[in-house]
Amino acid sequence: MESERITIQQTALRLLDMNRVVILCHRSPDGDTLGSGYALCRALQSLGRQARVACSDPVPAKLTYLAAGVPEEDFPEEHVISVDIADEALFGSGLEPFRGRVELAIDHHAGHRCFAGELCLDSGSASACEIVYEILLAMGVPMTPEIASCLYTGTATDTGCFKYTNVTPHTHRVAAALIEAGCDFKTINKVMFDTKSMAVIGLERAALNGLSLYRNGAIAVITVTREMMAQGGLCEGDLDGIAALPRKIEGVEAGVTIKERSENEYKVSLRTSELLDASDICARFGGGGHARAAGCSFDCPPALFLDKLLAALNEALDSAAAEHPEELHMKKWSVS
Amino acid sequence: MESERITIQQTALRLLDMNRVVILCHRSPDGDTLGSGYALCRALQSLGRQARVACSDPVPAKLTYLAAGVPEEDFPEEHVISVDIADEALFGSGLEPFRGRVELAIDHHAGHRCFAGELCLDSGSASACEIVYEILLAMGVPMTPEIASCLYTGTATDTGCFKYTNVTPHTHRVAAALIEAGCDFKTINKVMFDTKSMAVIGLERAALNGLSLYRNGAIAVITVTREMMAQGGLCEGDLDGIAALPRKIEGVEAGVTIKERSENEYKVSLRTSELLDASDICARFGGGGHARAAGCSFDCPPALFLDKLLAALNEALDSAAAEHPEELHMKKWSVS
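^ inputs. structure came back:
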């Protein structure tokens, strides 16, 4: 289907007209979908409207502050909107009842597959929270410290704390405004980017022990098994940083993290340098995401999947090498 | 001695009046002192003035882009200024000839010990580069991509890529302006914050193998020996990220990194949480720095020094516990 594209201003007007709103977040929720969802929920409630956030999976322990103090309202919903959801396939089982019922989607994924009546999409935005920030400004909602903390969370987590290539001047200006509005960026940064448990440190070490390098070190693959997680008493929510690990290794253009979720069910995170489109590659395996960070799933033996993924990565690296020979063969991340 | 405090505007006027300028950077130079120095040097040269950067130690390999394309000018200096130098003790032996001769110091260290005739100090600024950015604006210097890359480097490196508690709205606004001016933030971030060699990964692992925890895990100490560095073929410039490692461990309030420089010569990096003033503690051992990141040196057996440091840290933690019992005993970095 096609969605009608609407602007920030139009989105603000739509929202100001709504009451009894359910805000959908994607499954395996992260800081951006929940930050956007709870910011919008708090904003609507501050205007006296009934609103609630709905997600197939529970809020990860690290992110529970996003929902702190938000009354869990039960009401017959009149409006269904979604935030940071690129595809109905990412609803998860808990949101099945809402399929085909979303009237407004707010998103920043370039590969968004339309499922809502109206769509406010800015694929140049590093996070959905940056878009929600503009919408709340247009709605005239007072920016409380709590709303600012929700929006800062997605702004920071979707950019690796302003480190990734998706950052724009707008990202930094939004962060400046959110800090001025009193967001607790010091604690958020400490928790999200600067704290590791000894268990996670141990798991990273175990994952690096099993590191495999391919194509002269341009492709790095690590695997996290359920056994490794059980040894450290860890759950999937504890592992959000690990996907960034293999791409950090000098010379790596494609970093692959394979996580075992259950028997023969695996989740893959792909992080790439400027030369490869991670979203394109994951789309071949039924997944998606962003240009530098995407994911997919598989349910066959890992070696079988890895063969196919390596073939796809090699092909993509061959094309990149043909187009940018100097980049791949000579540039070792020196700043020009 | 006392320095005369002057404003950004006055500093700009002073600089516009100067020619044949030597710009001093502190020893063991980092992204902020060199970013400030080369930004200012490029700016003065763009105005047709003779200028050069002087530092006791060579520019680390990772930072050579700061100086790329800057002509090394030899001239009899008429003016000596310093950037990001908190104390003449940080000149290093190569800058001995300039002692007592600095007419203008530009700095952001709260513990600045005056040594220059005039001082442009903003201790609320996360980096010296943020101050130099304002000075260049006031001078009316066109912000080239090269100058912007110099200034972005210090802005990012002194804040752990906008992660540390010294970040202000101004920090983010300066970053936004520098990205708009064409700084190569994507490569800079990749090199500074998102790339590790296998040798550094191995050294971090070895350092963590020797991790010692004290006071119920509130103090973490790691040691990097010359042998560990030699094994990986690493030099001190490769290790700028390692000092952040021990404080990252959950529950740690004070992270200590001891680096062996030569026989019986050690450098200490102290990183603290909000509860402890790292600069105060390092000052007791003849060092200094910032509230959350400071350093000092010692030349006795490490166990002897560590005893004294642990005593100082325990004392500081006792005071913090008395003042903020809820922080130290109950708050496990949950976001309020």
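Residues 328-336 of chain B have pLDDT under 50 and may be disordered. Residues 66 and 150 of chain B are 6 Å apart (CA to CA).
thumbs up if we can close this ticket
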